[in-house]
Amino acid sequence: MKSDEIARYLATHPEFFDEYPHLLTDIRVSHPFEGRAIPIAERQILNLRDKIVLLETKLAELIRFGEENDVISQKMQHIAVAMMAARDLPTLIHALYLNLREDFAIPHAVLRVWQSAGDEIEFTPCSDEVKAWVENMPHPQCGAYLHPEALTWFGDTGHLRSYAAIPLKNDQVVGVLLLASEDAQRFYPQMGTLYLQRLGELIAAGLQRLLP
């Protein structure tokens, strides 16, 4: 019999070792690390111990991710509450920048809204090229690249290393939020963008509520 045939037989006949229990102590297998021969039952214990360590590591990782998500969710709630409380566009914009700076530690943020609704810089007209760039994004984009025109909105960018471009979209795109950081790894291409997308939807809903 070939080894894979033996493995299939033992997998389909677990009662085998009930009929021959002495084999659990008589069969000697190599220790996975020390090279000495040990009973098969001891090898099983070692395998189970390794699996327990792996499961504990995964559990600790899941707990860490859960705690991080709880913190982010709480920050998102702060922004949502602030925007719901805003009664005009300047208040909403101020609340957005404040929460990004205080809760998310993002001091470099630029908002542009397609519809002209005031004298604030956030309503400065954008080129059709920039609008097309934003409206063609299937999801927020992160990395070291930013549209050249949009890059100028930050003024001096010599100290900035990474960016996030977030379309402000519900049923339609109403603008864009740009975030920037001196840390090259703050916004990187492979990072998850679920919360950034939700932030864009939240801002879009707040703007649509107050735009004329």
Task: Describe the fold and architecture.
- The chain is 50% helix and 15% strand.
- The protein is an alpha+beta fold and 212 residues long.
- The chain has two domains: 1-74, no CATH class; 86-210, Beta-Lactamase, CATH 3.30.450.
- The strands form two sheets. A four-stranded antiparallel beta sheet has the order 3-6-5-4, sandwiched between helices. Strands 1-2 form a two-stranded antiparallel sheet.
- The mean pLDDT is 87.
Task: Fill in the keyword field for this structure.
single chain, alpha+beta, Beta-Lactamase
Order of helices and strands: HHHEEHHEHEHEEH
Helical stretch tally = 8
Question: Cα distance, first to last residue?
Answer: 80 Å
CATH superfamily of the largest domain: GAF domain
Average pLDDT reading: 87
CATH topology of the largest domain: Beta-Lactamase
For the record, the CATH class of the largest domain is Alpha Beta
**Total tally of structural domains:** 2
C-alpha Rg (nearest Å): 28 Å
User: Which sequence of strands runs across the widest sheet?
Assistant: 3-6-5-4
Helix content: 40-55%
The backbone outline, from C-alpha atoms, is elongated
Largest sheet: 4 strands, antiparallel
Q: Can you count the beta strands? A: 6
Structural class: alpha+beta
Low-confidence parts lasting 5 or more residues at pLDDT below 50? none
Q: How large a portion of the residues is in β-strands, by DSSP E?
A: 15-25%
User: How would you describe the oligomerization state of the chains in this entry?
Assistant: single chain
For the record, the CATH architecture of the largest domain stands as 2-Layer Sandwich
